Amino acid sequence: MLSVDNLTLHYGQSQILHGIGITAEPGKVTAVMGTNGVGKTSLLKAIAGRHPYARGTITLDGQVLDHLNAFQAARAGIAYVPQGREIFPLMTVQENLESGFACLPHAERGVPAHIFELFPILKDFLHRRGGDLSGGQQQQLAIARALITRPRVLLLDEPTEGIQPNIIQQIGRVIAQLREQGDMAVILVEQYFDFTWGLADRFFAVTRGTVSLSGEAGQISREALLDKVSI
Ligand SMILES: Nc1ncnc2c1ncn2[C@@H]1O[C@H](COP(=O)(O)OP(=O)(O)OP(=O)(O)O)[C@@H](O)[C@H]1O
């Protein structure tokens, strides 16, 4: 289980996260929701070692991840799919996938076959440039690249943003399949409410850098959550 406790984060003088805490269990999709600018991406960046946090604790399966950098976090089993995908446009699909190898020992540097079962289109397009793929295909590539490290925690930042509806459904099915594998905690930052409501097992609403509401699917009220995460 990933656990974030009492985390604070700043950009210069500006404090963005104010003692935020979430937990995410393997085999579950944990949604982090909130309006623009409340600090969702900053939280993911702190977990992924992409931005330092000032105070607080991040633990994975009871082990403290003590202010890791991005490489150390990836080695510890945390994979991050950033908002905007960050695909290398001039590199092929294969090269983009292989760029995910960096944190793996040489003996483990292979693309697991199940990646192409989840995303068959990537196999067909292995030699195309990343920049020639559609937004939805790039999102699939970004998730596939993250899965190459066989993570214990998968952080997804707005995976449906700018993507056509049929591909959104496909991404939803992939996330559900990853949950069914049972060994990975998926943390989903997402503003598309109905997509997230239909998919997640647990919800955290973030307001001004802290959790204002949380609860399990089936227990939390849709209206109460919608109220917290709407403008
Ligand atoms: N590198 C940065 N330097 C300064 N301020 C930043 C930086 N990155 C983000 N911020 C500010 O921190 C606040 C939280 O940003 P963050 O991206 O974490 O929010 P968010 O909830 O993910 O929003 P969105 O849904 O718009 O992505 C915002 O006010 C944003 O302008």
Automatic annotation (TrEMBL):
<dbReference type="GO" id="GO:0015658">
    <property type="term" value="F:branched-chain amino acid transmembrane transporter activity"/>
</dbReference>
<feature type="domain" description="ABC transporter">
    <location>
        <begin position="2"/>
        <end position="231"/>
    </location>
</feature>
<dbReference type="GO" id="GO:0015807">
    <property type="term" value="P:L-amino acid transport"/>
</dbReference>
<keyword id="KW-0067">ATP-binding</keyword>
<keyword id="KW-0813">Transport</keyword>
<protein>
    <submittedName>
        <fullName>Amino acid/amide ABC transporter ATP-binding protein 2, HAAT family (TC 3.A.1.4.-)</fullName>
    </submittedName>
</protein>
<dbReference type="Pfam" id="PF00005">
    <property type="entry name" value="ABC_tran"/>
</dbReference>
<dbReference type="InterPro" id="IPR003593">
    <property type="entry name" value="AAA+_ATPase"/>
</dbReference>
<keyword id="KW-0029">Amino-acid transport</keyword>
<dbReference type="GO" id="GO:0016887">
    <property type="term" value="F:ATP hydrolysis activity"/>
</dbReference>
<keyword id="KW-0547">Nucleotide-binding</keyword>
<dbReference type="InterPro" id="IPR003439">
    <property type="entry name" value="ABC_transporter-like_ATP-bd"/>
</dbReference>
<dbReference type="InterPro" id="IPR052156">
    <property type="entry name" value="BCAA_Transport_ATP-bd_LivF"/>
</dbReference>
<dbReference type="InterPro" id="IPR027417">
    <property type="entry name" value="P-loop_NTPase"/>
</dbReference>
<dbReference type="InterPro" id="IPR017780">
    <property type="entry name" value="ABC_transptr_urea_ATP-bd_UrtE"/>
</dbReference>
<comment type="similarity">
    <text>Belongs to the ABC transporter superfamily.</text>
</comment>
<dbReference type="GO" id="GO:0005524">
    <property type="term" value="F:ATP binding"/>
</dbReference>
